[in-house]
Every structure is written in C-alpha cells, then in structure tokens.
C-alpha cells in the first residue's frame, strides 16, 4: 500500500465514471452515505442534490462531510476527502454543473439532456471544500 501524491489522487478521482460515496451525519447522529456524481473544481468537490433530501438537510445543520472514491479492481485504491460544504441555489450554476456531470457520467451526447433534467429549481449545488485527504493506491499490492 502506498500513499498517492496530490496529482495522483486528483487524477484518480476524475478518471472514468467512478461515483463518490458521500457521507453526512443525520440530526439523530446516524450516518448517511449515498453515491453521487461529482467533479473537482479546483479545491472543491462539486455535485448537485435536491433541497429536500437528507444530504441538503444534514449540510444545512452541519457542513462537515466526507467523500470516498474507490476502484473495484485489484490492486484497489481509494481517496477519502473530508471538508466543509456550502450550498447554492443559483440556477445558472446548478444547470452548468448538472450538464457537466451529465456529460461525465452519461456521455457528452447526453450532457444537455441531464443538464435540463437535473438543473431545475429545487436542486442545489454543493461545494465540498477539500480539507483532509487520505489517498492510497495498490492497497492489496
């Protein structure tokens, strides 16, 4: 097992269509983890979520969160990012990122379709500021 450098972990999380597993803490203290489509924007992880969902409610109460990205193929690697999130309902930004994420995960030919579908009122843009990063490659090597 070997630690990844910053350029390595950034390339790892942005390669292919790996989903992130996003973790927050519910009001009663229980953990909540869901898969998300995401991208890096400088020192922030960016994704969308609905304003009425558990992620949005939890982040309004406590902006601390964790994202884990891993691969499912030996020798296995993973990146865990801890940070604090902000929420925005700026519809232009939500649409722009929903389109970019749709292109990343569903293909450029469907980017606009997903931008229209997921860039609507009620959706929020989440920006998780990269804080602590734990990143290992060749875990089973």
Q: Percent range for helical residues? A: 25-40%
Q: Could you report the average pLDDT, rounded to the nearest whole number?
A: 97
Overall shape: it is globular
Instruction: Give the percentage of residues in beta strands.
Output: 35-45%
- Going by helix content, strand content and strand pairing, the class is alpha+beta
CATH superfamily name? Electron Transport, Fmn-binding Protein, Chain A
CATH architecture: Roll
Oligomer: single chain
Tally of contiguous helical segments: 4
Low-confidence stretches: none
How is the CATH topology named?
Pnp Oxidase, Chain A
Largest sheet: 8 strands, antiparallel
Q: Note the run of SSEs as H and E.
A: EHEEEEHEEHHE
- The tally of domains stands at 1
Computed CA radius of gyration, to the nearest angstrom: 15 Å
Q: Please report the first level of CATH classification, the CATH class.
A: Mainly Beta
Number of strands: 8
End-to-end C-alpha gap: 6 Å
